[in-house]
Amino acid sequence: MFLDDTRFPLVFAREEGQSPASILAELEGLLDRQAPFVLITDHAPDDHHAETAEERREKALFFKRTKDRFRKYCRAMIVIEGKKPTSAAVRLAAVTASKAFGFSVLFETDERRAAARGMLVLLEARAG
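-> structure tokens emitted (128 positions)
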């Protein structure tokens, strides 16, 4: 997984491809910009089966450490569902997680719709 920030403030967490930096280092760099953004991912929120316990622990510590900055700069995370709708259980878990993270988790069917919704979220946040 890697972050594609070529369309910043829309940032795409892409499942295909790898970055020389870890995803956590990329997220840290994104937060260091100190600018609002929307994270768009094609990675299902419940698809972490291959992670080791150590990787999960490292992620949990990272998000605990950066929670305030995520709340300040991340306006939303949009999950691209594709042709397979996300189950109600996963949507419920996403809502619960969004409360902990401090930003909304939204769902869209494709990248075009996700990008349009992301820009709308940013405009609404700016209008306040």
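The mean pLDDT is 88.
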